[in-house]
């Protein structure tokens, strides 16, 4: 099951994680944020509770009430007005003189943590001698506000004899009369002096005694000290109540009898008419029939209130003599609704439009939902909300908006990887929504599954394309070394074969030969032979010669220790 934004917030905070992990249904997101704001840095939450329409948490230092007026701290030890009682094991705690009921904790289902965190409140009735007898003997427990009011209205020597239930209030019998404690929210007191006016003695399984006070009948029962109502009857007298002015919407008994006996009514009317005619014929003046009572109320067509604003519709309905005008939630959420509330629209009505009714006998009920919601398909159907456009919004604002709409089931995913963010432990409050399901402007039921894809602060929703790695330049293949071409006149390992030199002169063969040899030797050391090549081996060092193209050459000693022909520059 997916976690709500409030669950993630509380279960990731070390001050609330232990208690929050055991509670299936925690606080709304705004209430959770308010709680974390008022908790001390080392204050640890022990348990979560429900309290009326709000919530409460118990810490090691105080009880924190989380209601419409904001967080309220009640330091420990608490004042326990009433220990755990009822099927919900509710514990009543005194807060600024009023009683606050706490229940619904999974960690403290029995209420023992609350009881150990406080001490019983002193019983003002038990300590006061005027009420000490009923405090110890009666099973009825008066709320704290009613106790204070009773002690204020009692006389200095007025002793309480018994306590009774009276509808939504209470009644107290004293030695001087009856004290009625009415209105649970803002208690008020009314007195009835002795003797009491008893309309009906004890009757029924509860031995209820009907007492008439200021024209209104109160049914008293439930006293442990006076279980059969004998104490009430002993200080009263049985009376027959006279006709009371009819209340709006309540028909008089005569009208009810006429409606139930139409035949007898018709016969009576005919008899009266015949008697009047006969009396006129006898010479006596006929008696004019008495003017009838108020004419029967005419039926009206019910107006159409559907689609109107609730406040305007309730105001318009108040112009007709309806027995009452009530408002209610049109959805299955059963939220409390006030007729003066703004921002609500009417979806259904009862009686339906164009129906013909008598308003004084009918209660008009207007069924409405907040204007930001769609009307349900049927009365008491599931809430329908329009999915807002969340793309581009920060998640902290999105979570609040979804919580206000009743959309608590939210799963979060990373936009790039698609992996759930709940498992990473990161708090995505400042992340941005990139995608959503359902799409904007879609009608969804409250409680529907919402999926959001988020991206971290500063990152784009579109995943950037990866930059390609630069392609390395191919390694050049080594070029094959070219074989050197032989240079004309270059030196070779083979010794050059001397070219035959022409002989000059006319001597004999031997003489010419010998002369030619001498001439060759002398030419090498002197003018030198022609046709040598630069770089060829030569000898001796310093000898001169001429190359094949006619340039002067000289025999030099090289660095490698070998003599070679070189250019003779001078």
Give your account of this protein's structure.
- Residues 1-23, 454-570 are annotated as: Disordered.
- It holds the Pfam family PASTA.
- The structure is a single chain.
- The protein is 20% helix and 28% strand.
- It is elongated and about 180 Å long.
- It has 570 residues and is α+β, with helices and mostly antiparallel strands.
* Main sheet attributes: strand count, strand direction, barrel closure: 4 strands, antiparallel
Helical percentage = 10-25%
Distance between the termini: 108 Å
Give the beta-strand count.
31
Structure class: alpha+beta
Choose one word for the global shape. elongated
The Cα radius of gyration reads 58 Å
State which percent range the strand residues make up: 25-35%
Compute the number of helices.
13
Spatial arrangement of strands, main beta sheet = 1-2-3-4
Mean pLDDT: 79
Which runs of at least 5 residues are low in confidence (pLDDT < 50)?
Answer: 242-248, 279-295, 501-526
